[in-house]
Structure formats: C-alpha cells, structure tokens
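pinging the channel bc i need a second pair of eyes. not urgent but kinda urgent?? the chain im working w is below, pasted from the shared doc
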Amino acid sequence: MYAEERQQHIVERARSVGRVDVSWLAANFNVTMETVRRDLTVLERQGVLRRVHGGAIPVERLGFEPGLADRDAVMTAEKERIAKAALAEVPDEGAILLDAGTTTARLAEILPADRELTVVTNAVSVVPQLALRPQLTVLLLGGRVRGRTLAAVEDWTLRALADTFVDVAFVGTNGISAERGLTTPDIGEAAVKRAMIRAARRTVVLADHTKVGNDCLARFGELSEVDKFVTDTGLDDGLADELRAAGPEVVLA
C-alpha cells in the first residue's frame, strides 16, 4: 500500500470512529509506529487531523476547520471527477446557486461558456473567473467574508437569499450521513447553506467520499431535501445504499 492510500484510510477511520491510535494503525497496516507518526504529521500539515497523545482526531471533532488552501490540495482528482459529473445537472439556461467550497469551485471552473446562465454565489474566490465569461451573469452575495473559506455569510447573505429562487443549488458539505444529514463546522455557513436549499427548485450536493459518515457541529439539511448527491467511486457500497434509502440519488464519479 502506498503512503497516500494508507493516509486516506487513516483519515476515513478517524472520521468514522472519532480518533485513531498509533499502535492500532501500526498493527492494522503492518508498519512501524514511526511510519504511522510520519503519516499523522503529514495529515496534520494538510489540516485534516490534529495530533493528540497516542494518536490523532479529525479537526472537525475539535471545532477546527481546514483552510481553503489545505482543503483544495486534498482529493483533487476525485473533486475534478465530481465536478464533471455535476455538469449534467447544470441547466441550458436559467439560474443556479453555487456554494463556497473546493469541490463546487471545480464546477465553477468548467461551467459551459455557451450557456445563458445567472450564477448566484457566496464564494468570493470563484467570482473573478466567472465574471470574465460574457454569457454568464454573476451575482455575488454580500456579507461578512470568512477568511478560512472565503465564503460570504451572516445577515446580509441571508437577506439576499430570502428573495432568491433558482433552478438548481450546488451545495458543498463537510459531513454527510444517513443519521445526521448535512453538517458543517461553522454555524454561519450552515445558515447560508440552509437558505440555499430553500431557495432552489432542486439541490445537488457535491462532496468526496471522505465526507460520508463525518458529522460536524452544525446541521443545515436533511437528506430528504437533497435531490442528488455526487461523490466519487471511493464510497463504500453499503454507505451509498444507506444514503439512497434516506432520499437522494447517489452518483459515483
């Protein structure tokens, strides 16, 4: 097993059970404890785990949230495949909502240039590239901009969304499970994501498979409110079936 594969399994276990222990990981992967410690150091630098005595816990459990650059560097191939699959949900014309996030940003990069679309977004980082496309009308939602995610949040954002109605909302999530629904670490972003779901005729959630089974602080939606969940082929078949039973169509890209 390559180091990257082992590290991915470590993150998945940490998110599913709440923590990982160095001794258990060494025995399970048949490697030395020093190798495991190096893996945990790499994952901590990526902003997905926090080292604790004897092991590590996912940052979401501590209320921490990885920064935009750290999240953007993780699961890049999977996020690109998810974005390409989500293109099928973009209408030929009309209005869409584009949530802030590294996977939804991949969708922003590949939106067709020949469609007459209005794109409403709270993602400050995607506006420069979208605004240069003449066929797109870009509406940036105002509000306080969170430095960690470059997302506009709070009252100004919510007021604008209250008067907005679009064909499709493309929403990101930090956590998704059949038991808890859609969750994120920040209550301000949770409120905005909740308002986006209410403002759309259809909701499409984009997230890689490591978010499945991960529950964060603030819930912003139920799976019954989601029309389609687009993720990658790393998702376990059993987990995919659980999500489908709760409501959304599940697409593996």
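so The first helix runs from residue 3 to 17. and The mean pLDDT is 91. — does that match what u expected or am i reading it wrong
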